[in-house]
Amino acid sequence: QVQLVESGGGSVQAGGSLRLSCAASDSDGYTYSRYCMGWFRQAPGKEREGVGSIYTGNGLTYYAGPVKGRFTISQDSAKNTVYLQMNSLKPEDSAMYYCAAATSCNWISLRDLKSSDYGYWGQGTQVTVSS
Known about the structure:
Layout: E1 2-7, E2 10-13, E3 18-26, E4 36-42, E5 49-55, E6 61-63, E7 71-76, E8 81-86, E9 95-102, H1 107-112, E10 120-121, E11 125-130
């Protein structure tokens, strides 16, 4: 099974930055080298939405429209860790942020950011952006 450990959430003022980390490990012998790794978020009373994703095999990334130009996903393959760098944060970005993994990655999972395509999830980390 894949375990995902998230860190980096917190409270920040509008215009500030945060970096979230997600460290992956797999007790069943799956390799990190061809995962889809996604970031999702959910605010109270709203549906969970995709933020962005990265294919660990080549670093290809996709971003949802509301975060394009402000958020960046990267990885450190040696550490099996992905990052979500969030800049120019807005109050509308406040949400519980989740890291997720699909061990059998495909282009649809990477591009469409459908929650059902990701079988493993982290515990979530709260991000609060104040005015």
